[in-house]
């Protein structure tokens, strides 16, 4: 019994001293957070995300002063306008010099934090691998980033799961034994912020497609609703190729395409349309059939939106 009391007392001392030990360790630990921003994309550009990170660290220091006492925030910013994710990846290369300068003159432990899109994060991931520096991303969701051989130091916490989405799509194909599919991917150049999601959704879907060519027959078509509003050629081709059609575009464009499909007699139950988008969020617009333009009844009664 005495031995048990001794063990319990020792455990209590450890528990009581743990907060003090934590404060001691954290106080002696210096953390450098290098945030990287590219351009002024409305979703992940500097003006959209930079103030949030700065405010978050300030609030954290007020709430937990002992934990964040030795945490400093450094900013690397490459200016630009409403650039696309692909163009941002090219410009991300130009930030390597500034990041290297920070890493060479700072003491303590350094990490890179970014709210950039996936292709920009992939460039940072390649750079960080060579420097053995951790990269944390709050937005990148490309499945290629999960390749730990190429990106051993990159961790992403994107809200959109681009890995499960195509997996669910192929599970649906197997469930109904669909083997011939058409994918229509919209570049959406008129939405330089929103199009990052759709481009990534299409890229990840086709990445898995490339590994399933012996099992499925795919017809892939790319178009840009920012350059054309006539969707009849794309849908007419899809009509002759398959009866399962995947639309990866903005909800507003999707509505127009379904009205075109109605005009082509593709909404009579012979064809299946799958929407490659996510549920409603403020930045991506509502997924709805009702716009009050005199065509709502067609969508509701015939298309079944």
TrEMBL record:
Its main location: membrane. Residues 106-275 form the Receptor ligand binding region domain. Keywords: Membrane, Transmembrane, Transmembrane helix. One of its GO terms (cellular component) is membrane. InterPro entries: ANF_lig-bd_rcpt, Peripla_BP_I. It is found in: Membrane. Gene3D superfamilies: 3.40.50.2300. This is Receptor ligand binding region domain-containing protein. It comes from Ramazzottius varieornatus. The lineage of its organism: Eukaryota, Metazoa, Ecdysozoa, Tardigrada, Eutardigrada.
